[in-house]
């Protein structure tokens, strides 16, 4: 019963919040027709298109959008040998967009995601909700049973200590999906017809010390607070694994956010996910990940970052070290990934010198 | 799929702080009438209880409480704490408890919420405390575990506690409600989710259900505020009990869920009056939360009773010196375990 909103149903807001402070990063190999549906909500913002796959193909961007586009040739040109850390033939390449952005906030969305409707039939301005999530505090140290206490119509419940009511800065806003849910391949194979029609009217902070599966389909974050940790790993062409890019980033950012006292929210907004990818293709991509995650999760659950890791970059380099130490024995892939994590930070700091932490040493 | 359970495995326990339960019982009749009810009258209530016909119930009053509990205990079963006597004497596996100023709520489609059915569904489907599922309860129809959720964690653990929510008068503390006197909760959040392991939260007693076999003794009437009164704004007993239960569930590998069902909570009382009378409760959480967050129980504590004793000893040691209220709570917790062992588990059958 979930349906996407049509282009005419979505009404542009009176004020486009943060329009000069937020970039929308979209990975694509096909075309960007889906942007027509989003026009009223996205047009005020600058887009960063990361074109995956064949760089000779021309990606058609609808008229009227302000954008910069990068294909593989651009990535290689800009990063040189460090381009090896950016995935090819996988939407993980989108993290290149995070790196080249000059804005404080990023919203990333997949090109098969459309505007959803809330239960009243109104088109959902997902970007606006993400911004609200990012601009209001998170509450990771104690769970509020009425969910986000900063939302209109809610508050902290009886028993919530007053000293924790100021909250902490929100680094990540994780949105959800109506229609095609983000299931793994085995679940898709068992339940090919399941559609998510439940609209859960809540935003909540994921508690400190709790990991979650972060989906990159409908995600926003504060680039200044957590950007360097949003590396989407080595996936796709030449790699033994796919569809774990956002998962990997999600585990890394959560450990780092917990360490640095930053918040991660999940829940609203919903987008309408229209395309179910082929479950057999997905199974082949995910196959190793399904086994590996049994080792990876305990690794992240037990990961401890030393007190002197006071910046995101330092935390990330330390995590890379621990990945190399502890996960290489699972598969040599993790050794490569750990190196790529370091390369990513070096590339990030090169492209973003003002935000760089105390200079790190060269990678081994 | 929820485990199919029989109606006779469930007790509905109501603490009567009001003498006239007619409206309350009539409103809940379509939902409650299948089950056995235990009604415990607040020993401080002077008037006779008025209960409509047509229910299968046992009523316990001051005389019964005194007879069973005697004078050997420091536990005071008055006010909201009276319901725990019902937990003590019940012999059912599942208990559902709502405040007597709550009525059935309506869901987002306008249908009456069967709070009992939803609580039982929550308790009879697994909880998933070790990893957060972004689509909330994966055992709900129409939902599942999302991509990236480790398969080894998908069988989940037993859910021991189900915490429901409230429409209209939400469970705010007095300062919050006093600041926003007109605020009423009308949002229906159609989800139930597992509270992650080692995450603590304020567990309200207004609308809860639990697996008595698994955690019965861990719900306890032990913390009394100096100015404790007959409005939830003037108590913290359930919040205290909830912190104990959560720590114990985390230790025993049991789950706690929160979310639906909703109940409709009547407007009652005056937040400002309550605030003037009792504000110690609000301050106490500043000490209580860090204490419970750092509490670790020894491996040898493998039953709920053992765990309560461990918590009580830790309370006495670490919080007792800060305020005599905590020392009294610790003593009451030890008394509660003794009481539970003698009354809570025997084949004792108190007369009505």
The count of β-strands of chain A is 9
Q: What percentage of residues of chain B falls in helices of 4 or more residues?
A: 25-40%
Terminal residue distance of chain B: 37 Å
Helix and strand composition category of chain B: alpha/beta
Q: Assign an overall shape of chain A.
A: globular
Number of contiguous helices of chain A: 10
Broad structural category of chain A:
alpha/beta
Summarize model confidence as the mean pLDDT of chain A. 93
What does this structure look like?
- The complex is a heterodimer of chains A (364) and B (352).
- Chain A has 364 residues and is α/β, with parallel strands linked by helices.
- In chain A, 32% of the residues lie in helices and 15% in strands.
- In chain A, strands 1, 2, 3, 4, 5, 6, 7, 8 and 9 form a nine-stranded mixed beta sheet that branches.
- Chain A is globular.
- Chain B is an alpha/beta fold and 352 residues long.
- Chain B is 34% helix and 16% strand.
- Chain B has helices at residues 22-32, 62-69, 83-89, 115-124, 174-179, 212-215, 237-252, 271-277, 280-294, 304-319, 324-344; strands at residues 10-16, 36-41, 56-60, 94-98, 102-104, 159-168, 192-194, 207-211, 255-265.
- In chain B, strands 1, 2, 3, 4, 5, 6, 7, 8 and 9 form a nine-stranded mixed beta sheet that branches.
- In chain B, strand 1, helix 1 and strand 2 (36-41) form a beta-alpha-beta unit.
- Classes of the chains: A alpha/beta (364), B alpha/beta (352).
- At the A-B interface, helix 7 and helix 8 of A face helix 9 of B.
Question: What are the salient characteristics of this protein?
Answer:
heterodimer, A: 364 residues, alpha/beta, 10 helices, 9 strands, 32% helix, disordered C terminus, B: 352 residues, nine-stranded mixed beta sheet, 11 helices, 34% helix, 16% strand, globular
């Amino acid at each position: 019963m979930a349906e996407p909103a049509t282009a005419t149903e979505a009404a542009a807001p009176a004020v486009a919040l943060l329009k000069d402070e937020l970039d929308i990063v979209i990975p694509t190999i096909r075309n960007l027709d889906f942007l027509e549906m989003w026009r009223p909500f996205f047009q005020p913002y600058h887009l960063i298109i990361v074109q995956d796959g064949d760089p000779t193909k021309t990606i058609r961007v609808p008229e009227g959008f302000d954008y910069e586009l990068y294909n593989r040739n651009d990535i290689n040109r800009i990063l040189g040998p460090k381009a090896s850390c950016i995935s090819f033939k996988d939407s993980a390449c989108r993290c290149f967009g995070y790196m080249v952005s000059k804005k404080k906030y990023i919203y990333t969305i997949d090109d098969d995601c459309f505007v959803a409707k809330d239960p009243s039939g109104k088109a959902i301005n997902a970007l606006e909700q993400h911004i609200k999530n990012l601009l209001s505090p998170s509450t990771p140290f104690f769970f509020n049973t009425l969910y986000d206490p900063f939302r209109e119509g809610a508050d902290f419940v009886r028993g919530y200590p007053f000293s924790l009511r100021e909250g902490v800065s929100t680094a990540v806003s994780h949105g959800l999906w109506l229609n095609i849910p983000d299931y793994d391949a085995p679940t898709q194979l068992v339940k090919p017809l399941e559609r998510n029609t439940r609209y859960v009217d809540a935003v909540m902070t994921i508690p400190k010390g709790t990991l979650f599966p972060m989906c990159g389909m409908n995600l926003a974050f504060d680039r200044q607070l957590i950007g360097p940790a949003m590396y989407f790993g080595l996936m796709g062409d030449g790699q033994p694994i796919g569809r774990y890019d956002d998962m990997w980033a999600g585990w890394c950012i959560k450990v780092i956010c917990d360490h640095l006292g930053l918040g991660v929210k999940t829940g609203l907004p919903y987008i309408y996910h229209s395309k179910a990818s082929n479950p057999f293709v997905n199974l082949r991509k995910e196959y190793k990940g399904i086994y590996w995650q049994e080792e990876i999760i305990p690794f992240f659950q037990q990961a401890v970052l030393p007190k002197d890791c006071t910046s995101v970059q330092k935390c990330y380099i330390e995590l890379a070290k621990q990945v190399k130490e502890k996960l290489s024995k699972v598969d040599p892939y993790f050794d490569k990934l750990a190196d790529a994590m370091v390369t990513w930070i070096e590339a990030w700091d090169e492209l973003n010198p003002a935000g760089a932490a105390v200079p790190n040493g060269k990678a081994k | 799929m929820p485990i199919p359970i029989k109606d006779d495995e469930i007790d509905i326990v109501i603490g009567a702080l009001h003498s006239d339960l007619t409206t309350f019982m009539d409103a809940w009749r379509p939902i409650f009438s299948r089950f056995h009810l235990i009604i415990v009258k607040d020993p401080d209530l002077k008037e006779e209880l008025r209960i409509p016909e047509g229910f299968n119930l046992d009523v316990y009053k001051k005389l019964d409480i005194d007879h069973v509990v005697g004078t050997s205990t420091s536990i005071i079963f008055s006010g909201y704490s009276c319901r725990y006597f019902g937990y003590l004497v019940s012999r059912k596996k599942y208990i559902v408890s709502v405040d007597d100023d709550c009525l059935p709520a309506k869901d987002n489609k306008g249908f009456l919420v069967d709070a009992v059915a939803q609580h039982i569904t929550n308790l009879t489907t697994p909880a998933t405390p070790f990893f957060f599922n972004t689509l909330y309860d994966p055992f709900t129809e129409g939902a599942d575990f999302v991509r990236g959720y480790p398969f080894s964690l998908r069988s989940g653990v037993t859910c021991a506690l189900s915490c429901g929510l409230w429409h209209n008068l939400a469970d705010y503390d007095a300062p919050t409600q006093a600041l926003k006197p007109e605020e009423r909760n009308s949002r229906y959040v159609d989800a139930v989710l597992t509270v992650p392991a080692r995450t603590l939260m304020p567990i309200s007693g207004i609308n809860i259900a639990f697996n008595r076999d698994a955690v019965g003794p861990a719900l306890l009437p032990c913390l009394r505020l100096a100015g404790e009164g007959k409005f939830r704004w003037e108590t913290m007993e359930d919040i205290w009990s909830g912190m104990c239960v959560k720590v114990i569930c985390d230790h025993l590998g049991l789950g706690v869920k929160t979310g639906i069902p909703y109940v409709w909570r009547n407007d009652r009382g005056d937040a400002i009056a309550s605030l003037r009378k009792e504000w110690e409760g609000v301050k106490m959480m500043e000490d209580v939360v860090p204490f419970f967050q750092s509490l670790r129980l020894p491996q040898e504590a493998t039953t709920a009773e053992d765990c309560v004793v461990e918590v009580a000893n830790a309370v006495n040691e670490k919080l007792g010196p800060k305020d005599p209220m905590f020392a009294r709570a610790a003593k009451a917790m030890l008394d509660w375990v003794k009481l539970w062992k003698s009354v809570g588990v025997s084949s004792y059958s108190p007369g009505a």
